[in-house]
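Data availability (excerpt). The following record was deposited with the supplementary files.
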Amino acid sequence: MRNSTFQCFVLVSILFLVYSCTPKTTEPVTKTEPAPKITVPKEGASPCVKWTDVPNTEGLKTSHVLYRDFLKQKQFEEALPYWEKVYNAAPAADGFRDYHFLDGVKFQEYMLAKETDPTKKKEYEDRIFELYNEATKCYPARANLYKGLAAFKTYYSYPNRANQADQYKMFKEVVDMDKEKTADFIVNPFTALLMEQITTNSISISEGQKYAQQIFEIVAYGTENCKNTKECDRWDLVKDYSPARLEELEGIENFYPCSYYQEKYTKVYEANPTDCETIGSVYGILKWGKCPASDPLLVKLKPEVDRCFPPEKDDPVTSAGPSCASFLREGRYVEAIDCYEGKADGNADSERAASYYLTIAKIYYAHLKKFSSARKYARKALEQKPGWGKAHILIGKLYASSGPLCGPGRGFDSQVVTWVAIDEWNKAKKDSETAGEAQTLISKYYQYMPSKEDIFQRSIKEGDSFTVKCWINQSTKVRVP
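Predicted structure:
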């Protein structure tokens, strides 16, 4: 009776396998990264050995069903012998499903995690990438997916297999093939590697411009064409990271064309068209972006800039050239920094010196996207004017803006920046001039601190000392919302 019941179970399972729609498989690496999306191939049958090519077809189908059922329950030990049997005999399964290769990766990683012998660990690691290569040969129409998965694994799990330059090339090959249809799990690591290659001058500016633009197109296409909640959620993770990282490149003069600044900053202006700070910032950014004087928005903003920012008495335009404020208004940011620093250094009036240093800090933050330099000058302002709330507000904003720079955009590594940001805003609360703004910022960002679950998983607790690394490298206290 028991054998009969088991045979019925196997038969039903096989029928379900053959006639049902195959579920999608994902390979999450961290909870804050888009997991690779795996779908059923639509090409013709694989040229590799299938279970229809060997005598024991039904037995192999049964082994396939059994290992898949065990694997779904994460019973790796029970699943492994059935997988080995069906993989060794018919690696291509029915010729349309690549499960034996992709599931094989899971088995290798399971065994690698348990292994302590370095030699054997290396063998399991190598086998993972061999399986991706085998999948490429058996399902050539999906070769780019397997290359992408191999790049993804290398970047997040086995970075010692390739240096960053080679990892960048791995991802670039995938992007070159898939273009705007590149999978979501490729975009964030490729963006991080692209930024590294650009900022270290490892690739040409023209190559950097090409792939930055391509990433924008990929993100736009992916977010517009995602088909369900899970897929769209993965693209939301990408949107939280990649565009923010690429924004840093605005600090490289001539990296982005005028059209980039027009599209982005016209929206910024339209959202707050009467605010003088917005007017001056947008005007200067368009000039930095080399937009022509005939640009309609520049023409519209020019009289508003003159109204909002009349020449300062202590900063006149002289025969020697434009004033510091003029440099700033015209988007000549490097010259503005030099000008203001010249006014600040050695200035006997500490109030004015602090103001000049803070202006330099704001230029680095808002326009040149150099956060470390911005903090340096904000701290110089505090040396001249201790406890100045405006300087603490700016440093807090620098920290709060660093989530995508110091982590994946979401999750613990990105959220810890709120701790040091709130530290700065608490200091700003002591200045009556900025107390209200500081409290507003604290209330806004308080909810984004890491959760109790996040800190528990990392064996830390409320009140512990914690150092936020990345460029910040600042000690703080662990807190939860």
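Summary of structural features: The radius of gyration is 28 Å.
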